[in-house]
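2 proteins. here.
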Amino acid sequence: MLKNILLIGLIPATLAVVGCTTTPTVKQQENLNLLQNKTWVLTHIGSTEYPSQTNSPMIQFSSDLRVSGSDGCNRIMGNYAVKDHHLNLGSLASTKMYCQDMTLVEKYTTALHKVTGYQSYDRTLKLVDQYGNVVLQYKTTP
């Protein structure tokens, strides 16, 4: 008897949870397509331009919600979540190699921690803070 009562309560609860998951709208999917599966190479931290170099910081957002890249010296990796134009970078892990000049690495890492959203169009990606200020800007090749 108790088993039947549990089943009767469990089935509607399961259906309610499954029914609450949402699939991205067409517009959201288009935005994700602009963000994901590309190699984004850093061009700016804030308003300061960083010309492309051999070891320029870069970032990639995969369709399985994993983020990876480089801070110009170390590899970075982790998870991310997207809702509309809000971007939540989870805890990012990185290698800890010694580099001659850690200035760019420190600026880049600090900026990544401020990211709460993104704007993507054509071949440009802007990662923005909670106020909409651009903290990081990237370019990708076609």
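next one coming up
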Amino acid sequence: MIQFESNPFVHTLAYQVGKKGTVYCGDSYFIKATNEYFICVVADGLGSGEMAYMSSAAISRVVENHHEDNVQSLMERCNTVVKDKRGATVSILKVEFTNKQFVYSSVGNIVFVLYSPSGKFIYPLPILGYLSGKPQKYRTQSYSYEKGSKFILYTDGLKAPSVKSLLKDFHTIEDISNHLEAYTRKRDDDLTYIVGQLL
């Protein structure tokens, strides 16, 4: 499944495919671009199958329903909503167009990389573990960004080498996605990625 979300400030593409032989994809995501901000969440339910899907889908729904909230509040909502479920890793990115800043928070092994036209990479380290409804600390970080910056978020189902080179060497998000196609066929897990460019 491929979904585009674009406006004059951002152009994004989300791709998702389930583990071979399964009905339910244990990953979920949500992307939305408004005139003020872009927000996305990627969640990876623990394990696979229906129970993993229920955890990750609950997270994407709560962000969809409250996307105007700040990232810290959204992480707390996500943690609350997986109480009594299997749990999930999660990353939330919110880009504010007016001040050219973004806020990022992550728990678990979802990867986020941003590449600036000046050659700078931003690669925030997540908190280890997963959301389970228990009290949880979050590392929520703010960064400024340059016009033309490209980024990717992806779950551990994507086994692509040299993601940094991918952001640096390919000019459009469609080119990046086309290059990743070969790695989506080799998957042995649920797989989700979001690529974007800040305009």
